[in-house]
Amino acid sequence: MCLGCGRRAPKRDLARYVAVPEGGGMVLTRDHGASMPGRGLYTCRSGACFQRATERRGFARGARGPVVVDAALAGEFGDGEAVSGA
Ligand SMILES: [Zn+2]
What's the CA-to-centroid distance between 5 and ligand 1, angstroms? Predict the structure, then answer.
C-alpha cells in the first residue's frame, strides 16, 4: 500500500524503502532491488506520493519511529504522476 495516497498495488509496482539505522537514528533509504532486510515502506513511483507520505509522517508510522527523510529521494521519480496502471 502506498503511504502517500493509500492506493493498494502489487509491491513490485511500488517503490520500496527501508529505514536504516544511521548515526543513532533511522534514515529512509530507497531499496531499488527490493533486497534490503527490514520492514518495507512503500509509495507509488511518484514524487507527489513520496512527498505526501513524508508530510503525513507515513514513513515514521510505517517504521514505528522517527525517520529522517532526504527530500532528494522524491527527485528520483522526475515528474512523478506518470504511473502506469494507476
Ligand atoms: Zn500513492
Answer: 4
